[in-house]
Amino acid sequence: MFPEFVTNVRHSRESGNPVTFSERRWIPAFAGMTVTDGIIIMKYETFNRLKLEARPEPSRVWSYCSPLLALLITVLIGVALFSALGKDPLRGLQVFFWEPIKSGYAIGELMVKATPLLLIALGLAVCFRSNVWNIGAEGQFIAGAIAAGGVALLADKGTGGWIVIAVLLAGTLGGMLWGGITALLRDRFNANEILVSLMLVYVADLLLGYLVYGPWKDPAGYNFPQTKTFEAVTQIPRLFAGSRVSIGLAVALAGVAALWVFLFRTRAGFALQVGGLAPAAARYAGFSSRSALWLALLVSGGAAGLAGALEVAGPIGQLTPYVPAGYGFAAIIVAFVGRLHPLGMVFAAILMSMFYIGGELAQSRLGLPKSLTGVFQGLLLFTLLACDTLVMYRIKARSA
Amino acid sequence: MPLALMFGYILRMAAPRLELSHITKRYPAVVANSDVSLLVQPGETHAVLGENGAGKSTLMKIIHGSVQPDAGAMQFNGAAVRVRNPQESRALGISMVFQHFSLFDTLTVAENVWLGLAKSMSLAEVTAGILAKAGAYGLDVDPSRPIFTLSVGEMQRVEIIRALLTNPQLLILDEPTSVLTPQAVGKLFAVLKRLAAEGCSILYISHKLHEIRELCDACTVLRGGKVVGNCDPRAESNASLSRMMIGAEPQVPAPRKPPAPPAGAAALSVNALDLAREDQFGVDLEGISLQVRAGEIVGIAGVSGNGQRELLYALSGEDRRARAQSIELFGKPAAKMGPGRRRKLGLHFVPEERLGRGAVPPLSLARNLLLTRKEALGRGGWIRTGVLREQAAALIAGFQVKAGGPDAAAQSLSGGNLQKFIVGREIGAGPRLLIVSQPTWGVDVGAAAQIRAQILALRDAGCAVLVVSEELDELLEMSDRLYVIAKGRLSPPVDRAVASVEQLGEWMSGLWPATAVHEAMHAY
Questions:
Q1: A61-389 has which CATH code?
Q2: Do the chains contact at A266 and B381, CB–CB below 8 Å?
Q3: pTM
Q4: Yes or no, beta carbons of A11 and B61 under 8 Å apart
């Protein structure tokens, strides 16, 4: 089965407008399928009685149900995976889906990991909705962490509480700077933002490595590649005693509200999304694609940088080569599983956070590798993309 | 027995080319065809007449095999057949030219045609075949060009050539003339008449009544998915056909009042506009000069792909590369202004492409208002959703748009209704200059008459209007003055009163006499 892409011609044919600027939708097809008038006919014997029929309009029900079905399939594959590894699947599921929520402390830890995921995903949603493919949130996260760490290292015993604000601001600006590089290269030289932003992840990673192995290394740190532990005054204030949940969670939730308002209640947010949905319509309306590009990359860079600042000045407390934990990449999945909708991404962030914690627990409790986290994250995205077919198509029995 | 009668007798005895009995097709939202029966004889040119949404396209897709009926039977040359896909219909000898094209954008003309043909042929043979058919029927097209660089008219030519290359027994044509010059329509009709004389049956879908009366010798009228009549179109009048189709007297356009002379101040003047093409298959604009004054409708005729697209991009502000002075709006140099600033000056524009340019397909009608209207915006660009929905509801009611309401997605509307919405949106803004491209492309008779009447009313209210269309009849009906665009150059203006179809058709191929320029100069 070799995947190939075919153009779905249904819209041009039925929509009553010429094809030149009509909507083109790309649908994955596989060898052995034919696409006729928007109907994919699967030629495999087993599927001979079934067909996918284009819906007159996208199904609202399935746009909500598809993530749930994807989760269900992910769980089922997980069960098979645990069985194949010789582990009790029930125990495996318990580790992933029950342990992370069974106590107040566990829920707190869940939120600690969900916070950066959510913050980054909020920014990415702005990007993806405007058709700007920022894949390098991880790099912007690192850049934010470096900038925030640099400011935090300036603090000494006598520094006031204002330093927290400075740290967060520095992180945000650092992320914006890193996102801005991608925007500049795209705007000025039409460089592909996917590649540029992705490559800049490695640049940021190397920069962090240089700093913690070199100029910023803690002289009293037994030559470990890390900065000195930040002063206590730079510690991000926590929301509750006895939990590591910080004000970062409140910031992220405020971000959810702000994004919702921006997307659905302001003309700027509308213009941005038109640019993503129908670039020709944006050009017709006079919405600038350049300002959309800059806005999207600065917002998402800033959000990722802020998440980086919250991490280093929060749970980590110093700069080490292990600051990047893959949140920037996982947030891409959060954004899509959450349907690029502010509220949806809250749930998706919690789910992905569960996978992180579940992976760690699977390592300690079941003796399974931690990379199981990545397997589950990947499975979820993969099944989601498959299930999304049902948003545009319905399965019908063929009338023979 | 006279020979002719005997032939007729034999013809009647022979099996019909195509017989549909009691075809029904239901979709989730609508019954597209209900108990439709249709009989086409060999060599017959059979019209299927109906408004948009009457079920013509679905019926044709059933014959063509791309849609399966829920009930009913089909016979081809006397044998019961079940056409499960377009390949099977092609094997039977059925070929279809779609109104909206089924071409792959990234492939060349020859490759697209090749896809639809027997696999034994080589690309070189197909290319030769295309050139042969193109030459024989005067359908000018370059086989090596990728589809995405073609204009609408050129794409249709490719579709027609593709259908002809299969040497079909039954040829289905869906609104084939909408993008052809009058001369090319004449040529196409000659081709179709020749095909029919050779024994090929033709199913001709159209809403252009005079074409049907000229070309067809039988007619089935559909309304609301049902057959409402069969007739011989040659024995009918436009009015009687129209009555059958709509079920009521057609909306007569309001009697035109000539513009109050002298026409008002120049709203738009284009002065020797030169513009190099943006992509390699575009058209360079050369020395375009035109004027549109308040209170007049100016038409630009021409076959698509002759620079209309490029000119409209420059006029709307989507392309801002022209010299600042080359486009003046209400006396202000405007070529460097974006669409937003031009809109503030009073220029509103209805583009040819409805979905994807004039409207954002998945967004609601209410949201789509925000593309060009600002009434519902509060301070700082805050969207007052209540106001927005009311505004959309008022527009839907005022322009008789058939839609689920302000929240219906733009893509859920039929072409005609979406066009009514977009035209309504731009007219409702109270423009001082309205530019409309292809106002009635693929729009049914009723909606087309309504849109034209609204544009005329706008002119009478003192608005300057520029209409770019490939339908000459439409331009002659609406315009006060006409230009013709060909190969990126614009003809001298000609008064509608003295313009003839023949003359304009000739000009469409770029052959306007140099002397006409002088006469025009004197006239204005």
A1: 1.10.3470
A2: yes
A3: 0.75
A4: no
